[in-house]
Amino acid sequence: MAAFKQDQCVQRVGNQSHLSRLSSGLNQLRQQAAFCDVNIIVGDQRFPAHKAVLSCASDYFQGMFSSGFQESTMSEITVPGTEESFAQILDFAYTGYFTLSLRTVTGILQMACYMVIPEAMDLCAEYLREVKDSFTIEDYYEIWCITSNHSNLADIAQLYRSYLAQRFSECVQPNVFLENSSANVMLEILSDEDIETDNMTEEHILQGTVMWLKYDWEQRKVHAVDLLQKIRLGLVPIDRLHKILGDELLAVPECKDIVEEVIKLSATKDTASPPLVKSHPELFATRNTITARLEEDYDHASTAPIILLTCKTKTACYNITKLADVPNRYPYSDDKFFKAFVSNENQLYAAIDVGYYDGPDGETRYNWLKENNFFWYKSETNEWILLPPMPELLIYPRMVQIKEYIYLIGEVKIDTSKNMIQRFSIGSKSWEILVDDILIESLFAVALPTGQILVKGEQVRAGPNPDGSPYAGFRAVVVALYKPATNELLDVSVDKTLDLSSLFVANNNGCYLFTRSKDKEPEQVNRVILDFDCDRPSMVIGEVVEDETIDIEKQFYPEFTFDKRKLGLVQVPCECESHVK
């Protein structure tokens, strides 16, 4: 018979029923007050318990009994709360179970948080998600106050804060919320993107805020300015604005200054460029209005040519569903991309980018694209509307807007040596060709405040190729100025030692070059000195600009402002740098 070594055939075995019997036995001992070494006093009731069990279940009791504090040697300890809530928590400590109801969950959650029992907190949180539509305003407020102080309950805190925000008009009534909520609570709710719904306007929000201030004016008036700055006052009719604020608030100089600025801006509401909803969103954009960047989806070009990037607002991140697909009825679409363009009026257009590849049936595909190449996005119904097609299909079209026209600049599909400028009239929805053979292959274009278009591209010039290839000529970076008034495209002198990446206008008052120098790191932004109002326009690169407000990415990914409810957006918990407290 073979001999086995002593450490062979070793097994660790267990029995779940033993653990259940042990838990049940400990609970029976507690109920009989057998071997208990401490009494927990809550209200008028004493609860016999075992320090060892309490220490294992609760970080609160473990710290109390093992730290050398006076309580570690006491036989009776008083804790705050209600007898009913503590009885449930004590049952959980011994058995892992308790009973929740709409009436008791708030007290049990508060006790679980106070005693630091994560498992009990998680069970309460799961219950609160399921019954989130079943509470009163006072309940929502109390639950939010409890959960907002615990990072592992952040999603519940955000959920219940949103419920408070959506019921803001109910909050500011003579109740617990109006009486007890602090200025920080009001500021946080007023900052919530979900505060405005279909049934509540900014005027209602202002009325509720003023009601909270005047409930205890002497104590709360110091917060008036901070609160008013959280309200979109430009959405409130001017006559109503004065009436709601009243003499008390308008007597505060800073509040009066805010109102006067709103009145001044409102006078330009119909003529402002850019629109006030973009230049002053904190005053004139509804809370349901958010802005996201657009990009072409090259990975799924045949089904979803344009998608929305993830959006971050001042207070939250949103999961964004893609826009409706651009109409795509022709099968040969493996190389059919779209360029997104957002007009000054915040209208979204898409122009086809045909690329260089014709597919297996090039002529048929080309004929179809000739009639299906320019679209407008109708945000109200989340659909694309086919517009009159551009006269010539373009490769890599660049789009800019000047007044009521959208200009498209690019290489003509049928003749890859020719470049063209076409423009679309937004008002009449018609096209015209302006320059049908420009000597520059457009790589980038930007509209200038002067009503002209600055184009960066490449131009084939005579001479040998630097790489020794047999083709005559070489490609040089060229910057040109297009003048719509005279339909001219003029070459502009520029420092040829720079490898230009893009041209863009910042703040409507200056033209800049984002440059990549071959010898310098990091990349830098240079101010450009413009002189385009003379017979010989010129552009000279000036000093390096260090300005964090210059948004280079915006030139490549246009921003589109829309109502988040139209696409079914959902606010999601996040830990991004913008929102971490």
Report on the structure:
- It contains 20 helices and 25 strands.
- The chain is an alpha+beta fold.
- It has a domain of 275 residues: Neuraminidase (6 Propeller), CATH 2.120.10.
- A 4-stranded antiparallel β-sheet has the order 8-9-10-11, with no helix packed on it.
- Helix 2 packs across helix 3, helix 5 runs parallel beside helix 7 and helix 7 runs antiparallel to helix 8.
- The longest helix has 16 residues.
- It is elongated, with a radius of gyration of 34 Å.
- It starts with 15 loop residues before the first helix and ends in a 9-residue tail after the last strand.
List keywords for this structure.
4-stranded antiparallel β-sheet, Neuraminidase, alpha+beta, single chain, elongated, 581 residues
Secondary structural class: alpha+beta
Write down the overall mean pLDDT: 78
Alpha-carbon Rg, integer: 34 Å
Q: Helical segment tally? A: 20
Enter the CATH topology name of the domain at 289-563: Neuraminidase
In whole angstroms, the N-to-C terminal distance is 71 Å
**Order of adjacent strands in the largest pleated sheet:** 8-9-10-11
* CATH C-level category of the domain at 289-563: Mainly Beta
Q: Please mark out the parts with pLDDT under 50 across 5 or more consecutive residues, or reply none.
A: 299-305, 329-335
Reported CATH architecture of the domain at 289-563: 6 Propeller
Q: Report the principal-axis shape.
A: elongated
Beta-strand fraction estimate: 25-35%
Q: State the total count of DSSP E strands.
A: 25
Q: Percentage of helical residues?
A: 25-40%
Largest sheet: 4 strands, antiparallel
